[in-house]
Structure formats: structure tokens, C-alpha cells
Design a protein that fits this description.
This protein is an alpha+beta fold. It has 15 helices and 24 strands. Its main location: mitochondrion.
Length: about 600
């Protein structure tokens, strides 16, 4: 009898240990209510869930160049027509421009149309381009490439700007025109009318603990109901993803293709500063089959200011080696003998990163749907060969506003019935936005051949010469995440250790972003299935999220039992670049808006 009891106890012990191992292999990571419904959670049983609502005529989601241009244009038309039209813009950053990160070398064409007297009004276009350079880097040298009028990378007539400063200035113009700008107000959920059309958005709830339970300070988000909603969220907008799925906006387009852009702002020695110089490179340290390159922009220093240089590096997210780290490629780039002297004796003062839309013409979604439309980078209007999107973003925002105002002034758009702003699509097709993108449509996908960089350069030269009139359209060949190869098929990449002078580690870089999130909240990097990171990403791809994230959000750490690893999500580090949502090979990560918007404070980078 005693023996039987002992054996039974051993079996129970073995079973208990097996269950413990099973669950410790895949511990619960995601606690966000978008994955774990609150409807069946007893902790939420008696919580008041009613939301307050505001009504507006035009609702704009996102306060970048496209959103601000849309707000200004809508109010301009309202003034011209003597109409009372409420225009409301929601921006998730704590202040206008706070989440803006860009090169940026801006074509002023859209600004000239929107605010012709921008110079008199003090627009921060302080650095006209006066010199262009373009080169192919080898491991130890640089081969100059031509830059002349007619080429996409010819920048005379453009301006080097700090885009965050420009957006802040645009916000001032929008408010002066009568638009309402709501900073620190992040849209989190789409709202629909009974007929299926878009009714508006709801902002995120606040006061939710890390374990998903309500805090004593819990407050429901706010609803914004509109006649027309214009989405200008920037690259890979989370609400745009929802709208695209709801209205099947990508039915006739290829999957969007992306890049990640990383940027630093440096104070450099006076002798290394050449205000108005715009320089781009391709080649080293990337191999010929990895798309990417650098930008180096010299900004005009104001009185009493140190000489500033913006340096950045872009890597196409269609790369195949899971061991590639865009951040470390960027740091390695600065060690090139042509580049390094520029930063010697200087001081790095800022860092940031963001995803870029690179798909162009082939990847454009249908931009309109019942109750709203898409504008700017959220629709994919970046011109990759020109390395410019601000002018197209602003122009598309202006056209969206014009179409929305037509429907509102005619009385067709009401709060009760959703209408599709179809004229917006027509206006886009007749604008330079579509003309530009169609003309350069084959340049980016031409880099996908076995010749890689060299084949792409040759084909792009041909396509530019014929102004994109070739009677075919090349394909990007599928989604970026599907192009990552299993780790066993690839070689690890040996990166140099940071020296703390020219090159830096990831965490000290993240510290410069000013990123901030409430610690006691569910991670906004959600997983559809908490077991997938270890089962697939780690076991097949050797944990690529730890390398493609430019902020140290993802890391694999040992289990307490010592017999495996688990994924740890450091959500407080997130700088809202959206790269994880794009490049995750399992498509298991979904970025949702954090409580209160959170995120970086780029302050004019």
C-alpha cells in the first residue's frame, strides 16, 4: 500500500513538473484587451464602459505633414465659402511634431500651393540645398556617381529641414486657420454606422494595469464622430490596418514593401560643416543583395547654435539574413574612412528610427471607403528614388480635404449616413503624386534580381532615361516578412563593438529618444499567440526581432528553470517605428497604441 502511494505521488510529481515545463516554455506575455477580451474577465464585471462623444465635421487622424496640410486646406475652403465647418485633428504625441522623424530634404512644391507666403510667415525652411553628392562606398573607398538635373536625387531647389520643427509650425498655421489640434490624443478603435460606413474613432482607455486589470483611476476613451475621417497616420498606421481589412483596400495591390530609417543628429566641428550640402551613399556596409544607403544633411546653424549634421541609414526590410541588424549596420557605416572624419571631435545629441513605405505604385491601396480616405505615408506616397515623401504627403492631404469639403458643403456627407469621397481618388490620379510614383515604379523592384545593387542601378538609369514609360511594371515579389530565410541557411554577421565616440550601443541610443511609457500598463506590442516567438522565431530564425528592432524592445532571456528561453518585451523602450509589426516572420506581433500615446520625444529631429 505504502509503495503504491509513493509511486502515485511520483507520477503526480512528474505530471506536475511536465505541466510546469510546458507552461514555463511559453509563459503568458500579452495581457492587452485587444487579445484577451474584457467581456469574460470577472475583474471588469462592474466597470462603467460608457464613453463620451464629440461630433466634428472632418476628423483627421495623425498630425504629420499630411494631416496638418489637410486641416489647413479644409479651413481655408471653409473661410472662402463662409461656412461653419469643424475640423478636428488627433495627434498621439504629447505635442505637435513630437513623434516626427525624417531626413529631411523637402521639395517645397506643396508648401508653395498651400501657403504661398510661407517665407513671410516664418516657415522653418532655413537651409536651401546648394550642393549635391552621391557615391558608391566600397569597404575602404568611395566611387563618385553623377548628380545632375533630371535625376531623382538632384536636390537643388529643395530645403534641408528639421521636420519636427516644420510640423510644429504647420500646427500653428492650422490652429490660426481655425482647426482644432488635440495632442496626446491617440485613436485606438474604429467606430462604424449601422450601414457599415466609418463613423469615427475612439481614443484609448487609460488606467489599465500591466496584468490587464482596471486601476482605480480607470477612464474610458473618448469617441469622435465625423462626417468624413481622413487617415494620415504615417507609415503602417494601426487604424489604417483596420480600415484596410474592413474595406478590403489592398485587394488589387501588392503587399506594401518597407524600409527602416535610422537617424542621428550631431554637433560637428566647424571645419566639417557645410550648410546646404546633401549627400547620399549606397553600397558598403550592405552586401549587393540588401537594399539601402545613407544620407548626410548639413543644416544651417542659427545664431549661437552649434553646427548640425543629420546622418541616417536606411535598410530595405525585404532583407533575407535574420542575423542582420539595421542599427548595427548604421553604426558600422560611420566607421568608413570617408565618413568617420566628419564626426570626429563632434557630439551625438539625438537618435531615432522609423519605418518607411517603399512599395510605391504597385503597392498603393484603394484610398477611399465609405466615410473616409487615406493620405500621406499611411497610403504609401513616398517617392523612393527621390528619397522624398513630405511634398506628396502634404499634397494628398490637401486633395483629401478638398474632396471632404465638397461632400460637406453639398450636404451629401452627414453624421447619419456615410459617403465615399470618390473625387479624392480622381484628384490623386490627376496630380503629380500619382505621376511621380508611376514614373519611378520600376526602380525599387529592379534591385531584386541576382545582380542586386548593380542590376538595380543599371535598370534605374534606363528607367529614368525613358521617364518610366516602359510598357511593363515589375513586382516586389511578395511581402517583406516572407523573404527572411531560416537561420540555418545564413551566416551570423560579426559587427564591431561600439567605441562610445563614433559608434554606440543600443540602449544608450534609446536614451536619447526621450521615449516614455507608463510602466504599469499592458504591453502595446501584442502577440496573437504567446508560444510563437519561441516555437518559430527563435527555433527557426534565431530570434530576429532582437536584431531588427532599433530600440531593444525584444530579447530572449533564460527561463528560471534553466532549460530554455522565453521572449521578454521591453515595451517601455518602444520608439513607435512599427518595424516589428512589419518584419516579424510569423506575423504574430501587432502594434497597438499605448496608453496616452506615449513614445519618443524627438523635439525637432
Amino acid at each position: 500500500m505504502a509503495t503504491a502511494i509513493v509511486n502515485s505521488a511520483r507520477q503526480v510529481g512528474r505530471l506536475t513538473n511536465a505541466v510546469r515545463r510546458l507552461y514555463s516554455d511559453y509563459p503568458k506575455i500579452t495581457t492587452h484587451y485587444t487579445i484577451h477580451s474584457r467581456d469574460k474577465d470577472p475583474r471588469w464585471k462592474d466597470i462603467e464602459m460608457e464613453r463620451m462623444a464629440e461630433e466634428t465635421d472632418i476628423l483627421i487622424i495623425g498630425g504629420g505633414p499630411a494631416g496638418m496640410a489637410a486641416a489647413i486646406r479644409a479651413r481655408q475652403i471653409a473661410e472662402e465659402k463662409g461656412a461653419e465647418v469643424r475640423v478636428t485633428l488627433l495627434e498621439k504625441a504629447a505635442e505637435a511634431g513630437g513623434h516626427i522623424l525624417s531626413g529631411a530634404c523637402v521639395d517645397p512644391i506643396a508648401m508653395n500651393e498651400l501657403i504661398p507666403d510661407w517665407k513671410e510667415k516664418g516657415a522653418p525652411f532655413d537651409t536651401p540645398v546648394n550642393s549635391d553628392k552621391f557615391g558608391l562606398l566600397t569597404k575602404s573607398g568611395r566611387i563618385p556617381l553623377p548628380v545632375f538635373r533630371g535625376l531623382p536625387n538632384y536636390n537643388h531647389g529643395n530645403y534641408v529641414v528639421r521636420l519636427g520643427h516644420l510640423v510644429r509650425w504647420l500646427a500653428e498655421q492650422a490652429e490660426a486657420a481655425g482647426a482644432e489640434v488635440w495632442p496626446g490624443c491617440a485613436g485606438a478603435e474604429l467606430l462604424y454606422r449601422d450601414d457599415g460606413s466609418l463613423k469615427g474613432v475612439a481614443t484609448g482607455d487609460v488606467g489599465i494595469a500591466k496584468d490587464g486589470s482596471p486601476k482605480d483611476m480607470f477612464e474610458r476613451g473618448m469617441e469622435f464622430h465625423s462626417k468624413i475621417t481622413i487617415f494620415t497616420e504615417g507609415c503602417h498606421g494601426h487604424l489604417t490596418k483596420m480600415a484596410s481589412k474592413k474595406y478590403n483596400l489592398r485587394e488589387n495591390s501588392e503587399p506594401q514593401s518597407y524600409g527602416i530609417g535610422l537617424k542621428e543628429l550631431w554637433e560637428v566641428k566647424q571645419e566639417n560643416h557645410k550648410p546646404g550640402l546633401v549627400e547620399h551613399t549606397i553600397g558598403w556596409p550592405l552586401d549587393k543583395n540588401t537594399y539601402g544607403g545613407s544620407f548626410i544633411y548639413h543644416l544651417q546653424a542659427g545664431e549661437g547654435e552649434a553646427p548640425l549634421v543629420a546622418v541616417g541609414f536606411v535598410v530595405g526590410l525585404d532583407y533575407s539574413n535574420p542575423y542582420l541588424s539595421p542599427f548595427r549596420e548604421f553604426q558600422k557605416f560611420k566607421l568608413h574612412p570617408y565618413v568617420k572624419p566628419m564626426f570626429e571631435g563632434g557630439t551625438r545629441i539625438a537618435y531615432g528610427a522609423r519605418a518607411l513605405v517603399e512599395g510605391g505604385w504597385q503597392c498603393l491601396p484603394k484610398p477611399v471607403f465609405p466615410g473616409g480616405c487615406l493620405a500621406g505615408d499611411t497610403a504609401g506616397f513616398l517617392n523612393v528614388p527621390r528619397i522624398k515623401g513630405t511634398h506628396n504627403a502634404m499634397k494628398s492631404g490637401m486633395l483629401a480635404a478638398e474632396s471632404a469639403m465638397e461632400l460637406i458643403l453639398s450636404g451629401e456627407a452627414t453624421h447619419e449616413k456615410g459617403v465615399t469621397p470618390t473625387s479624392y481618388e480622381d484628384k490623386l490620379k490627376q496630380s503629380y503624386v500619382y505621376k511621380e510614383l508611376k514614373q519611378v515604379r520600376n526602380c525599387r523592384p529592379s534591385f531584386h534580381t541576382s545582380l542586386g545593387l548593380y542590376g538595380g542601378l543599371a535598370y534605374s538609369a534606363f528607367s529614368t532615361a525613358v521617364r518610366g514609360k516602359e510598357p511593363w511594371t515589375l513586382s516586389h515579389g511578395g511581402a517583406d516578412h516572407a523573404k527572411l530565410k531560416p537561420a540555418k541557411e545564413c551566416q551570423p554577421i560579426d559587427y564591431p563593438k561600439p567605441d562610445g565616440v563614433i559608434t554606440f550601443d543600443l540602449l544608450s541610443s534609446v536614451a536619447l529618444t526621450g521615449t516614455n511609457h507608463e510602466a504599469d500598463q499592458p504591453a502595446h506590442l501584442t502577440l496573437q499567440d504567446d508560444s510563437v516567438p519561441v516555437k518559430n522565431n527563435l527555433n527557426v530564425f534565431d530570434g530576429p526581432e532582437a536584431r531588427f528592432c532599433p530600440a531593444g524592445v525584444y530579447e530572449y532571456v533564460p527561463l528560471e528553470t534553466g532549460d530554455g528561453q522565453r521572449l521578454q518585451i521591453n515595451a517601455q523602450n518602444c520608439i513607435h517605428c512599427k518595424t516589428c509589426d512589419i518584419k516579424d516572420p510569423s506575423q504574430n506581433i501587432n502594434w497597438v497604441v499605448p496608453e496616452g500615446g506615449g513614445g519618443p520625444a524627438y523635439n525637432g529631429m
